[in-house]
Structures are given as C-alpha cells and as structure tokens.
Task: inverse folding
C-alpha cells in the first residue's frame, strides 16, 4: 500500500508540473538583458543570475583598470574559406512552431552581434538549447546601463543580472510567447532589418563629439563593417581567413542595398540605432556635430531613444489570458509577448572596460571592436600600420575601395560640399598640397599661454612662407577657432588637412575626417607631464602619425608618455615652443621622422 501511495503521489506531482509548466518564472534556464532600471533600485534587491566577483575583488580589478577577459570566447575561426551561403531570410516567427534559436556572430568585450535575439518587458533574451557557459560571460556583454563612477558600490551596481540578460531554452521561449488555444499566431513580432542597441547612459559621454563620433560611432563602424567585410586578408602569414559571417557576397544580415562587389565593396548600413538610456537631447552635443555626423553618414538611419524603448517595454509586458479568451481555464495567467531582432548589435561601455585592451591599456572602448576585427583580417587598412612587435610603423597604400573608415568619411565630407570637383583632388593628400590646420583654443578653457600661441602662429607662417619660396608643392596654414566656423566649413577644412594640431581637446576630433596618407599627422599639445590616449589612439587606428608635444619635445608611438592629468592639464597656461613644433612638422613631411 505504501508503495502504491508513493507512486500515486509522484504521478500527481508530475501531472501538476505539466499543467503549471507554462507559467513558471523561468529562472532555471534563462539569461536576461534589461536595459532600463528603477531609480530606487538597490543592489541587494536584485537576484543576481551570474556569479560575480567578491566586492573587494571587483573593486581591486576595476579601480586598477586591468581586468582580463578570461571567459570571453571568440567566434569559431576556420583556416578554410566558408562555403558560400545564400542570403538569410528573416524567419516568420509569428507562426513558427519553434522560435529561431539565438546565435552569436561576433563578440569582443562591449561589442556583441546576435542573430535572432528577443526582448520582452525590457529584458534581452538569448534563446538557446546550448549550455549558457558556451556564451561569453554577461559582464563582457552588457551592464545595468548606470552612469559609471569609480566606487565599489557603483561597480557592483553596473554588473548585469538576469534582468539585464537572460538565457532560456527554445521550449521555454515557446511556452512564454508561443500561440495557445484560441490564438492564430505567436505573440512575437519581428523588428525588421539590422539594429544597433546602445546601452550607454545618456548622462555620460554621449553628448560629447569625441566620445559619440570618434569613439562610439568609430567602434560601431569598425565592428559592423568588419563583421560584413568581403575583404580577405591573412590572420597571420600562414593562416588566411575570410569573413566569419559571409563566405559570399550575400550575408546573413538583412540588406536593402545591392550586394557588394570587388569594384564596389560598400557595406550595408544598419537600419536603426536605439539609445535605450538616452533622451533625445542627451545624445546631441551643444555644437550640433553629433546629429550632423549621424545624419550625414547614415541618412536613412532610424533613431529611437529612451522614450521609444520604454514604449517597446510597455508593449511587451505580459497580458492576462482572460483578455484573449474569457473562457480561459486560467484567466489570470500571464502570457508573455516579445520583439524578435533578426540581427542586433549590442554596445555597452561598462562591458568594454572589462576587456584587456580598453580596461588595461588605453581606455578606448572602440579599441576592443577595432582590434578584434583587425586581428582577424576583416578591416581594410591604409596609412601607417602599427604592430606591437615592431617599433616602426609601416605604410600601407590604400586597398581597392579604400580603408574601412573611408565609406563613412566620404559620406560626411561630400555632405559638407567637399565632393565638388574643385575638392576631389583633396580627398587624397598623396599628391596634394601640404595643408596645416591649427585648431586654436584661445577662446575657451584649456589653452596656450598667449605669447606661446602667438609664437606658434608666427613659426607656422614662417615655415609655410619658406617652403613656398623653395618651390615644389604648395604649403598652406590655417589658424582657426572651430567655434567661429559653421559645421560645413569645419568639415571641408578637415577633409583637406595634412597636419592637424592643437591643444588636447574636442576640436581634434576632426582628425577622423582627414584623408589618410603617408604624411597625415596629428600634433597634440599637452601640459608637460600630461597625456591621454583619446586622440593618440584614434589617430593610429586610422593610419595617421601622432605626436604628443610637451613644450619643445615631441613623443610618438611606441614611446608615447604614460596617461596622467597633472595640475595645469585643464588650465589656461599651457606652454609650447613654436619653432620646435614647426621643425617637427617639417621633418615629418620631409620624411626625416
């Protein structure tokens, strides 16, 4: 009798588990990415899904900024060319008996491209029947999106939980969002096209031209274009590698443009950008260059902001079964709804800082995206190439179709009017004149001593006058205060600049619009003993030569100074010896350095 009762009890529990299976909270199998937060949220209120470092360990690692990406798994590499594949068609998820599983296409800390990822009630879901540990640790993918402060409490508060990124099985996804009795379709709606989701907080960095364009958009295009590159280059001397995505001109990305060809290697542009933590005013900078650049470079791009993302969150909140069917056996049961993103690139600043390069070497989030693609031979390079194994950068002539950034640069330059016939020869300075552009900061904070500014201008003018008297190519110097030029004028000038110089500051962001050549150079003036990687690293990533100047001494890779912000770094009494800077520029153009 006892045995019979035990069997009866087990059978009853089994039946009950089946009946209630579709309504559990799913915490057993899931990964979640919530890109919103409650301002009253506290760390201890959240049920952490992932193992996190002990508080002191997390603090020590991040305060020293030397974290190593120990769990990040690269996408599988192959030494052989992938078999050609036809363009992937977006699955009709509304009627699918099994929702498409999520695949990881490319990943570097802070930069991740998914296929078939889902969002429900503010959480990103990875749907997979594989072990979640086969994916990178979520701390390298996303964060809570809070502004970054260098404190233990804030570091912990930015660690992702199951509310930020969650993994669920395909069967669990179908239980949550699949059609039920009385329903004709699944409760899943596809967001057509390619989406970039920026998880950065709107109250930090986004409203700064350098951080928005020369870091965020710069890294975005490096990762996006590299992922779709049809350019084949050796990963090393013995191991050729072709694109990890393609294998043929047709990609697994959605594309409204015609396939690329060898003569037209343009990259399909993503369809929408979502700034999930930024209001419409928070991603725009005061001078207006962020929106100018975005609309010029990506004219068809749809932009969504925090309010739009909140709309999507509300529209995927669960609904009660009784709302669909009054005769439902469980009218109060909650039925999930979700958006399906065929291709989504998730960008997260906090996650990038956990990478070895950004977190431990140069504090540039774009560097994680750039080196991931560069080291796999998926970026078209030109200009000076910097190799950690060599102390001398080597010049690489532009490949067919131009370097990886050239598509973006040309669109912005031509938008500003520099594509007119009289400017076409200036789009490449290989055979052009030498144009020196000194971006003066004398009207704003962080500027030169006035006598030193006047001495620098005099030395530059004397250099140009002397070189023109010698004959040969024409030399030109422009001394400008960027705030006194309109945006088109600034872009046109940058687009024909050979040497750009100025005090460390936002105006040097225009180096991203300079044509890359064997002579293209950026000269950045610092308060002595001060240094930051911002413009130095971006210059090198584009193929320019960069010099950091302390008064009368210039430093260049690989002997650049260490990062430091001494008293006086932000001040109005930065010294510089004009004749020394003029000689550095002349020596650089003449090939002596």
Result:
């Amino acid at each position: 009798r006892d045995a019979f009762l035990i069997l009866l009890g087990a059978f009853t529990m089994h039946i009950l588990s089946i009946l209630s299976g579709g309504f559990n909270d799913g915490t057993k199998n899931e990964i979640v990415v919530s890109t919103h937060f409650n301002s009253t949220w506290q760390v201890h209120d959240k049920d952490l899904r992932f193992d996190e470092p002990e508080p002191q360990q997390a603090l020590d690692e991040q305060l020293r900024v030397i974290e190593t990406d120990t769990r990040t798994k690269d996408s599988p590499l192959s030494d052989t060319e992938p078999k050609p594949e036809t363009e992937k068609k977006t699955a009709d998820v509304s009627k699918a008996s099994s929702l498409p599983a999520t695949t990881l296409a490319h990943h570097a800390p802070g930069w991740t491209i998914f296929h078939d990822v889902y969002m429900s009630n503010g959480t990103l879901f990875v749907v997979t029947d594989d072990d979640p540990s086969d994916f990178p640790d979520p701390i390298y993918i996303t964060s809570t999106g809070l502004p970054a402060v260098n404190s233990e409490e804030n570091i912990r508060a930015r660690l992702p939980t199951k509310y930020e990124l969650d993994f669920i099985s395909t069967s669990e996804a179908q239980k949550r969002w699949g059609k039920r009795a009385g329903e004709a379709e699944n409760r899943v709606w596809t967001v057509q096209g390619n989406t970039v989701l920026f998880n950065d907080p709107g109250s930090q960095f986004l409203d700064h031209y350098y951080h928005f364009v020369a870091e965020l958009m710069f890294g975005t295009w490096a990762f996006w274009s590299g992922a779709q590159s049809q350019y084949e280059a050796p990963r090393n001397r013995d191991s050729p590698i072709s694109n990890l995505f393609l294998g043929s001109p047709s990609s697994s990305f959605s594309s409204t443009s015609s396939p690329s060809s060898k003569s037209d290697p343009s990259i399909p542009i993503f369809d929408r950008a979502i700034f999930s933590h930024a209001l419409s005013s928070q991603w725009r900078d005061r001078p207006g260059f962020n929106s100018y650049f975005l609309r010029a470079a990506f004219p068809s791009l749809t932009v969504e902001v925090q309010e739009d993302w909140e709309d999507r969150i509300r529209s995927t909140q669960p609904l009660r079964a009784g709302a669909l069917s009054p005769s439902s056996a469980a009218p109060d049961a909650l039925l999930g709804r979700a958006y399906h993103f065929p291709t989504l690139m998730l960008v997260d600043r906090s996650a990038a800082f956990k990478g070895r390069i950004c977190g431990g070497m140069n504090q540039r989030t774009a560097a994680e995206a750039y080196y991931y693609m560069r080291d796999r031979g998926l970026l078209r390079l030109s200009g000076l190439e910097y190799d950690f194994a060599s102390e001398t950068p080597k010049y690489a002539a532009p490949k067919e179709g131009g370097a990886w950034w050239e598509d973006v640069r040309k669109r912005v330059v031509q938008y500003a009017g520099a594509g007119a016939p009289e400017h076409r020869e200036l789009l490449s300075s290989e055979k052009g004149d030498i144009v020196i552009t000194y971006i003066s900061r004398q009207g704003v904070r962080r500027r030169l001593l006035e006598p030193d500014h006047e001495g620098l201008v005099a030395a530059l003018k004397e250099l140009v006058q002397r070189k023109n008297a010698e004959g040969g190519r024409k030399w030109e110097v422009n001394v400008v205060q960027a705030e006194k030029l309109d945006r088109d004028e600034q872009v046109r000038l940058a687009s024909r600049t050979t040497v750009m110089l100025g005090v460390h500051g936002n105006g040097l962001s225009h180096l991203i619009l300079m044509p890359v050549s064997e002579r293209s150079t950026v000269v950045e003036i610092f308060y002595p003993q001060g240094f930051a990687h911002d413009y130095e690293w971006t210059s090198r990533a584009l193929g320019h030569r960069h010099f950091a100047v302390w008064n009368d001494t210039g430093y260049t890779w690989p002997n650049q100074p260490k990062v430091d912000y001494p008293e006086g770094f932000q001040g109005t009494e930065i010294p510089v010896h004009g004749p020394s800077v003029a000689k550095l520029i002349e020596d650089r153009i003449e090939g002596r350095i």
Q: What stands out?
A: The chain has two domains: 93-230+268-322+333-353, 387-590.
